[in-house]
Each structure stands twice: as structure tokens, then as C-alpha cells.
């Protein structure tokens, strides 16, 4: 997963719910030094009895914000969405000569 272009990650999930697996896996895919590189990571764990669905919000360097309802998505779908926009940003950066 391309995390170089991410600036802000917000995750809300119930760690005991099987439907929160994509949220947990997404957090595990973020490199350990991401916060040192300037990425803001905000994770909110819900109580065991909560019925609120897992959600993920990702903000990119170009200002685009993606809101994903993880209740209906698998981790491969989430990674594909994030990588699609990251590849577009990488292509723009490469073409501009930076």
C-alpha cells in the first residue's frame, strides 16, 4: 500500500466485532515511522456493546478526502481505493519533475 501521499488517517472501530477486520488490518499496514513523517493518525475504539459501523477517513496531500464505510468493504477494496489515488498523485509528481 502506498502511504507516502497520506496526511491524515481517522479510524473508528469496535475491536471485538468481526466486521472491523478491515480497520484493524489498515492500521497494521501503516508504517511505524508514519507519524514521524507528518501523518496524523487518529484511531477511536468503540466499546464492545457498540453497534456503530467501522469507518475510515483518509486525507491525501492534494486535499482529497475519502470516507469509507468498512462495514461493506474488504481490506483489498480499501487498499485498491487508496492506492488508486496514490498512484495518480505519484504520476503527477513524476510528470512535474519533483
From TrEMBL:
Question: Sorted alphabetically, which keywords does the UniProt record give?
Answer: Mitochondrion, Ribonucleoprotein, Ribosomal protein
Q: Its domain of life?
A: Eukaryota
Q: Does the keyword Hydrolase apply?
A: no
Task: Please give the Gene Ontology molecular function terms for this protein.
Answer: structural constituent of ribosome
- Provide the protein's localization: Mitochondrion
Q: Which Gene3D superfamilies match?
A: Glutaredoxin
What Gene Ontology terms describe where this protein resides (cellular component)? mitochondrial large ribosomal subunit
Query: Family assignment?
Result: Belongs to the mitochondrion-specific ribosomal protein mL53 family.
Name of this protein: Large ribosomal subunit protein mL53
Amino acid at each position: 500500500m502506498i502511504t507516502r501521499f497520506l496526511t491524515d488517517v481517522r479510524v473508528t472501530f469496535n475491536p471485538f466485532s468481526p466486521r472491523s477486520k478491515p480497520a484493524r488490518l489498515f492500521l497494521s499496514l501503516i508504517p511505524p515511522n508514519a507519524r514521524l513523517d507528518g501523518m496524523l493518525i487518529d484511531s477511536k475504539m468503540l466499546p464492545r456493546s457498540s453497534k456503530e459501523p467501522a469507518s475510515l477517513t483518509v486525507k491525501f496531500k492534494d486535499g482529497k478526502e475519502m470516507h469509507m464505510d468498512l462495514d461493506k468493504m474488504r481490506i483489498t477494496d480499501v487498499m485498491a481505493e487508496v492506492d488508486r489515488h496514490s498512484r495518480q498523485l505519484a504520476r503527477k509528481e513524476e510528470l512535474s519533475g519533483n
